[in-house]
Amino acid sequence: MTVNPILKTKIAFVASGSPIAQAAQAALTSQYDGVAVENADIIVALGGDGFMLETLHSTQNLRAPVYGMNRGTVGFLMNSYSAQGLRDRLAKAQEEVINPLHMTATCVNGTQHKALAINEISLLRAGPQAAKLRIHVDGKLRMDELVCDGALLATPAGSTAYNYSAHGPILPIGSDVLALTAVAAFRPRRWRGALLPKAARVTFDVTNAAKRPVNVDADGVSVKDVKQVDVWSAPEIEHRILFDPGHGLEERLIREQFA
């Protein structure tokens, strides 16, 4: 008798700190003989989108794809939760591959900080006055001065998050495009951003950083008092995410635009 390969699949369960996620992790680990993350064929993340991003970052050097189940408040990257029939769902799941963004931030004091972001890199004013930014794309000056509350560069996977709230465009998954979006632009008042090739390298210079301080955030990694932020795509890093059939990122992005 041939054993169904999915029955041999080793599953690791990780969870956010919320009681409901912790309880789900304990129950599922017992029910499905959960293993350590480093030994898993598939990693199941229990929580919300924030925890999903944490899991993708922490497991990016592993080959196991990540399947999320929503035990949080936001679940754009998550599948619905059910303790029953999980192995069958995993066998039928469809894979999406996304690439993060690299960030190198240089602070006013000369220190440098590097980070990766799956959703977006966002610059935001840190004081009462609007930020003043100068923007270069691939070394060419494209905007001498953007006066705003901030600006961000978003991936297709992150385009429905902060980018969409800032009135940026939703980008189809698989499109080789990044969204450069202003946050409450004051000058030029009607500038709503730009679509850039995925291979573009974007440099934000903070003018008069001492008087108009700016912070930058990359998927929860925050750096204060920056004077320059350099951002580019990281095609060498692949995050593999599993979704139930008919509920992948492409379908979710389309559905979001008609909500």
TrEMBL record:
It comes from the Bacteria. This is NAD kinase. Its cofactor is a divalent metal cation. Involved in the regulation of the intracellular balance of NAD and NADP, and is a key enzyme in the biosynthesis of NADP. Catalyzes specifically the phosphorylation on 2'-hydroxyl of the adenosine moiety of NAD to yield NADP. It catalyses: NAD(+) + ATP = ADP + NADP(+) + H(+). NAD(+) binds at residues 49-50, 119-120, 149, 157, 160-165, 184. Residues 1-23 form the signal peptide. The active site is at 49 (proton acceptor). It comes from Octadecabacter antarcticus 307. InterPro entries: ATP-NAD_kinase_N, ATP-NAD_kinase_PpnK-typ_C, NAD/diacylglycerol_kinase_sf, NADK. One of its GO terms (biological process) is NAD+ metabolic process. The keyword Oxidoreductase does not apply. It is an enzyme of class 2 (transferase). It is found in: Cytoplasm. Its EC number is 2.7.1.23. One of its GO terms (cellular component) is cytoplasm.
